Amino acid sequence: MLQSYDYVTMLVYLAFLLGVGWAFGRMSKTTSDFVRGGGKGTWWLVGSSSLLAGISAFTFSGNAAGAYDAGPTLLIIYLANTLAFLVHAAFLASRFRQTRAFTAADVVRERFGPAVEQFSAYYSVVIGALTGAVPLWALASFCSGVFAIPQDTLIVVLGTVVTLYAIKGGKWAVMGNDFVQSLIIYPITILLAILALREVGGVSALIENFSRPDLAADFSFVKEPGQFPGDNFTWTWIIAAFITQFLAYVNLGSASRYLAARDGREATRSALLAAAGMGFGALVWFIPPWVTRMLWSADVEAMAALGEPANSAYAIAALKLLPAGLVGVMVVAMFAATLSTMDVGLNGNAGTLIRNVIPPLRRVLGLSALGDKQLMLAGKIGTLVMGALTIALALYFSKLKGFRLFDAFLQINSLIGMPLIMPMIAGLVVRRLPRWSFFWILGMSAVPAVLSLFAATPWTYSERSLWVFAAGVAATLTAIPFYAREPADYRERVDGFFTKMNTPLNDEERGKSSDAMQASILGKASLAMAGALLFLLFIPNPAWGRYCILAISGSVALVGGLLLLGARAERRRLGANPEPTNAN
Fold this sequence. Notes:
The chain is mainly alpha-helical.
């Protein structure tokens, strides 16, 4: 269980996030700054934020449970994520940035028109609190069962911290804190993977254990039908999981990941960073639960109070292997993974509210347009309201019982996520679609999802996902012939949208560089975090434990030092080559 110094670590970390958010607050002066960082984000800042938004505490609980139960099969999800980021880097990231949009709803408006923009905007605002509440609830439920941290207290504290720094600094604070959180997640998870490998006897011993008589069937890559509930981890499941996860990243909605980048080149580099981070993470994040299955399965089964004991597999490895003081850092890493999902959602919803909901609504009501400062205030109020609603929903969910993380997330994705994604994919890859095609594809994709709810025999995740995908493809193909009947102005607008996506930003649109300020703030923050980690050396530990603490602190300090050197070099460059001051 956690010690007093672990709680101190967590409190210091949360205070640190508020400090970073406050430091970035001075960069949020306009709605563009608040919503998308003024479109001036560096590749490493945008990339780390995009990467962190793709993981949550679910990675270390629900997905770790999948790894504990079924060995390497769930890696197909992370292969899909990594390949999607590579597709972004090769084809999409620069084009998404070149839409010159502020929000994903802006992109949808230019592609499909105002009706679809309004549907997308209201849907994202309504569903936004839910998407933030579920991972927050899952994290609190997990930490309550494994680490004995009061569940409701954790929900309120974490939700409040995220809401406060998102209000203060907007997109800048979100990206800055996501970067800081990545500096915690990667070193501590790499360290735990190394310690787990050492405990099991190395990489070769780990692989040999996959064919152990008691593990061989469960740890084979492809399972037999009926071996797992819902025919999970069979060939059909693998295909369905890959398709749904890949398409969840490769659609028009993914544009929001890159709208803060300074230009198409920075967006491309940020996608490469996210791909590298996701691929490398998949190689280290699931070693601990595999080792837990091999060595400490009895400890996992003893966690029956969780309802799904396998959810504790990663935490059991941390409690067994990490030296004193670093268990608190591991809990902080789980906080980081969840907070990065929540803060991106809060900021995205605030942006949609002030860009795509309030202005059209005021026009309909015959009211005058709000000024930039008024919209900024509306965005902050919206962030506060969405944060409070997210906390309230998470508290409500915390009273529910029987939550099975791994299956629940997959089922929700196939039932709700896939039908909504299909028209967003079609709009990206098929130019010749009529105005009404979005709702046609959405409706047809939803048919199998709805039918599955009333089937005499429950549909599996794989069946529902593949039927939704097939229905969406069929609807897209039947819509294409009607494009020729669309009026010329609509077809010109569609052509203009794709032309704009393929047109690089000019110097004026790129605006004045703030790279040095970004690097300076986060360089200093990284060094401060590294220094704080050194206080863990005062906790009694064997020599190897102190070396582990030094390694974690040193890795963070190294990044901080490199950032400060980069800031100094950037200032010298700008002194010799001043850049334009306007930004788009």
